Amino acid sequence: MSSRLLLLAAGTIALGACNTVNKNIGQEDPGLGEAVKYNAAVQTVNPDPVYPAGSAQPGDSGVKGAAAVKRYRSDAVKQVEVMQTTSGSGSPR
Q1: What's the CA gap between 48 and 45, in Å, rounded?
Q2: DSSP string for the chain
Q3: What is the pLDDT of residue 9?
């Protein structure tokens, strides 16, 4: 009889351990999986890219590239356009 009682107690404890940690299913953190989604988006090639008007286009003959090399060798390189992507300040050191 005691073995049955022990088996019943062990079964009850085992079933109690199957309870979920998250009591409200469907109410998880909304940011869950954002890093994975971001990494997938960064590594996905844009199927319909938009190129600036003065830049090299797919299928160009290389004339723009040759002109860029000529400007580089003659030290007449176009100035780099500085863009700021974030704002705010970092942590103090």
Answers
A1: 9
A2: -HHHHHHHHHHHHHHHTTS-S-SSTT---TTTTHHHHHHHHHTSPPSS----TTS--TT--SHHHHHHHHHHHTT-PPPPPP-----S-----
A3: 85
- pTM for the model stands at 0.29
* pLDDT tens column, 16-63: 666 666 566 667 777 888 999 999 988 898 888 888 887 777 777 788
**Which structure tokens are listed for 41?**
């988006």
Distance, in Å, from the CA atom of 8 to the CA atom of 62, rounded to the nearest integer, reads 80
